[in-house]
Amino acid sequence: MKRLTTIALAILFSVTTISARTIQGEVRSDSDSTAVVGATCRLMSGGQFIDGVTTDDRGAFEISTGIKSKLMLEISMPGFNSTDIVIESDKNVNVGTVYLSEGVTLKELEVSASSMTDAKGRTIIFPAGSDVRASSTAISLFQKLPLAGLEANPINRSLSVDGGTPVILINGIPSTIDDLNALQPKDIAKIEFSRITPARYADRGNSGFLSITLKKRNDGGQIYLWGRSAVTTTFVDGNIRGSYHQGPSQFTLQYNPSWRNYQDVYDNSTESYIGDDFRVDLESHDRAPFYYYYHNISLKYDYSPNLNTLFSATFRINPGADKRSSDATTIDSYLGEYKNENVSRSKDLAPSLDLFFKRDFNDKNALEVEMVGTLSSSDYRRTNKYFYADGATSDYIMDVDSRRRSLISEISYIHQFSDKTSLSAGYQNTLSHSTNTYLTTGYKPVLTENNNYIYARLGQQVGKVYFSVATGAKLYWIKNDLNKRHFVRNLTTAQFSWNISQQWNMSGAFQYSPSIPSLSALTDYPQQQSPYLISNGNPDLKVSQRFLYQLMPSYRYKKFSASLFMTYNDIKDCTLSDMFYIGDKMFLSQTVNARRMWYAGGSLNLKISDIYGFGANVSLSTEHYEIMGQNWCHNLTTFSANFSLWWNKGPYTISYWQKIPGKYMSGHYVGREENGNVLSFEYQPNKHWTFGASWMYMFEKKGSKYPSWGYSNVNPYVKERYIKDNANMVVLSVSYSTDFGSIFRSSKRSLNNSDNGSSLLKM
């Protein structure tokens, strides 16, 4: 009897299991067909909740149930209109692609909250309509996003992550900050962000990762013009971007000029050179004007015959010139008072061709290939002249012409074993040939480089936790005239992200990244700069080793988000600039290895948005440094902050950005970051024009300031540079954009989904 009962129960269980049905599909944005990550999918029966899941990073979902009766599938996501789908079939159902429309329109007021989630170690944001309306440029949009560690500087139009330059991708293609600045906020559909540089780019020396997906377009063209200029200072920036899309092809022409001519620049310093049998004290006050211009031009062609294939070719050329000078009076305790004039000029040109190819073979396999060839030239002229009280003079000339040829190649392969497991691997190679011609001596060293980087990365989702581990080998061969160096080093990254709930997330990372000395740091060619100072490279430099640990809990609720970031860095054999006395009243400046450097820090990021048009983004940070050499040790504790406030009402936007600069330490050197603030007013009378006025460096009599201190026993100093041209600077800006042809936001409709006014679909 027991045996019959067991068999009956087993049969009943098997029948129940077999009879369970599965409902699956994908959720995408109506405006651009991108995946909606983190959308809530709930099965309801008779008004009762049955089961629910959230969409993954591809927007996919799957729910199983044993209920045979009619079900209601509810799909919702903040910032999108919800959709209800009636499922009448009692079998497995694939609802296909479900498109959610953005925002809710009520009394001509669009309520559209920013959609933000964490997936596979990255923060994913779909910018809110309110943030886009309050932003006239891409940089101003990034100021409003709750991305801890990312600083968007509206004065310099730059992005940094934890003080370094992030990797930037636009539609999956490696891009530059100029490419980002040429984007309009309304064209940005999705942003993926990470403070940890992915293994694929770990060899490039970048900090952080930023991937931007643009809204898709049909045939037609677009023109975007933006420019700004100060009223009383030669301060000019601009963007000119034109694109045309026809069938599988898109052509883009982009021009980004930048021009500065600052005359009211001042340097004050007191320093000493201290040797065993010699000491000299210097006090200097000088005016140091500078001038530069850059013309970054790019022509880009994209070809995508289908959704699985993309070819992109970009030609860039960036002619530029730079001139810096100083006219100083120096009080010298050994030589007396004298005048010195320093003038440096450079002309640079670096045309490059970037070829990129991507192929998605299927849902599981993808291949990316990129090649970048560059022909760069730089002509550098520097003369330091000294006029002594007795009529004697001395000149120190450092003139050099540099020519570099390089080819960078990369191939990357990605395989998805399942929705939860992925593997990627790749190989990168950099070949370069550089020639530096020192005109005063005729010395002409040839520098060659062969840099190889091989990596592999495995990602795994386990419940609500995502893990990834990556390791790579860097094989670096360089030859600098008669010196040869070979380096073989490992790079390793481990990362986790735990989606505790819809509000809470915890992420962390470990990274080991050795820093191999550059060609210039290894160049053995002494050059005299002043009556007391000689500079030279160091061919005996060791590789520094960096161990990084990070932990970040985050919380989000409706229009509020907060994150706490904690980090610890331990660097062994760190490189720094040091000074040595070499006798005969001469000193040597050289890059060397210190024993160890460590620093720990924490930052708190808070954001609230769209409260009657108001929004705020605040970041507070503190760090502690400790650096140890052979017979010395330095400590530093510092605090920094930056915050953005904005208000938007109809065509008007008022915003304010403030940076409270912190200090940073590198060996004996301590500096303070650039100060800055901006009060801006913008008026957008229609969808084409935006007019703006900004007040920069408000109430700063000295404008931008750059103080620094040196704590070396051989070369202690205190220096200050300030640029009065920036003080209370008024900047006017204007932008114009227009679409022509049949450009509009498009999306592909599934036959399983239609818009009938009530968002109901019967199957």
In short:
The protein is mainly β and 763 residues long.
The proportion of residues forming helix, as a percent range, comes to under 10%
Which word captures the global form?
globular
SS field, number of helical segments: 5
End-to-end gap: 45 Å
Q: Name the structural class.
A: mainly beta
Q: Uncertain runs with pLDDT below 50, 5 residues or more? A: 7-18, 104-114, 742-763
- Return the average pLDDT rounded to an integer: 87
Most strands sheet: 31 strands, antiparallel
By DSSP, the count of extended strands is 53
Cα Rg: 30 Å
Strand content: over 45%
How would you describe this protein?
- Strand 23 (290-306) and strand 24 form a beta hairpin.
- It is globular and about 105 Å long.
- The protein has a 31-stranded antiparallel beta sheet that branches.
- It contains 5 helices and 53 strands.
- It is 5% helix and 65% strand.
- The chain is mainly beta.
